[in-house]
Design a protein that fits this description.
The protein folds into two domains: about 110 residues, Alpha-Beta Complex (Hemagglutinin Ectodomain, Chain B), CATH 3.90.20; about 60 residues, Head domain of nucleotide exchange factor GrpE (Nucleotide Exchange Factor Grpe, Chain A, domain 2, Roll), CATH 2.30.22. It is elongated, with a radius of gyration of 41 Å. By secondary structure, the protein is of the alpha+beta class. The chain has a three-stranded antiparallel β-sheet. It has a three-stranded mixed β-sheet with strand order 2-6-3, with no helix packed on it.
């Protein structure tokens, strides 16, 4: 007797093939889910690290500003002491005020403050012309400084307020 293939064998093979495909799909789904979870974990860690970095930078900036304020105040406290001594002293007040002015100017110069030059021609980048008057000076020359101007580093802190020449009358 020879055995002939039966329909039962082909049905079993088909079922086995389907089971293998289902197992492969489940394995593939598990692998993709695991990869997704790893990416999500990495993303969450990066987000937390960035938040910590941002907070650390903000804290460092606040500390830097506080130290800068502290340094400036330390420079100004001796000047305050000298003002109190000048007020308490009944002698030559003018000399005391000159000394205090010099100390304050020196302290501010250490911080980068410098006076804007007002000699010669009017400069609209560093000066503000409040008046224009006829004079013997050349037209556009600064003839009077009403208020000094100052730079802090390379930036104009306050422009010099000046009167400029409109040229001669006749």
């Amino acid at each position: 007797m020879t055995e002939e293939p039966t329909n039962l064998d082909s049905v079993e093979e088909t079922e086995e093939t389907e089971e293998v495909e289902e197992v492969e799909e489940v394995d593939e789904l598990a692998a993709v889910t695991k990869e997704r979870d790893e990416y999500l974990d990495t993303l969450q860690r990066l987000k937390a690290e960035f938040d910590n970095y941002r907070k650390r930078v903000a804290r460092d900036q606040q500390e830097l500003a506080a130290r800068a304020h502290e340094r400036l105040v330390k420079e100004l406290v001796p000047i305050l002491d000298d003002l109190e001594r000048a007020l308490a002293h009944e002698g030559d007040v003018e000399e005391g005020i000159r000394l205090i002015h010099r100390q304050l100017a020196d302290a501010l110069a250490k911080e980068g403050l410098s006076e804007i030059e007002t000699d010669g021609k009017f400069d609209p980048h560093t000066q503000e012309a409040l008046l224009s008057q006829p004079s013997d000076a050349a037209e556009g020359d600064v003839i009077q400084v009403l208020q000094k101007g100052y730079r802090l580093g390379d930036r104009v802190l306050r422009p010099a307020r000046v009167v400029i020449s409109a040229g001669s009358n006749g």
